[in-house]
Amino acid sequence: MDELRVSSKLMNHLMSKFIRHKIRKHCGQTINVVFNQIVATIKDGDKVKIHLELDADMNTADFEKMITKALGLGGDKENEEA
Q: DSSP 3-state assignment of 48?
């Protein structure tokens, strides 16, 4: 079993910036993301388990918009009128 653990300050900063950018591009919401660490464990050479640890915060209205978009809810005139 091999394990790769990344938790350096530089890598954490870069991953936080990357995740923040991808969320903003995909969902249109600005989120404060603090990436803490990633642990990748390889078992038997054919399975990889990845564990990400991060903290994020955003305002409630932006969270509701993001969840609505992610789940495909809303945006339908028929659903709004019903």
A: strand
For helices 9-27 and 60-71, give the axis angle rounded to 10 degrees.
70
Residue 57 tokens read as 């915060």
pTM over 0.90: no
Tens of pLDDT, residue by residue over 32-68, are 989 888 899 988 878 999 998 989 999 998 888 888 8
Around Cβ 57, how many Cβ atoms within 10 Å?
9
**Full DSSP string of 27-78:** H----EEEEEEEEEEEETTTEEEEEEEEEEE--HHHHHHHHHHHHT-S--HH
> Which uninterrupted H or E stretch holds 50?
strand 47-57
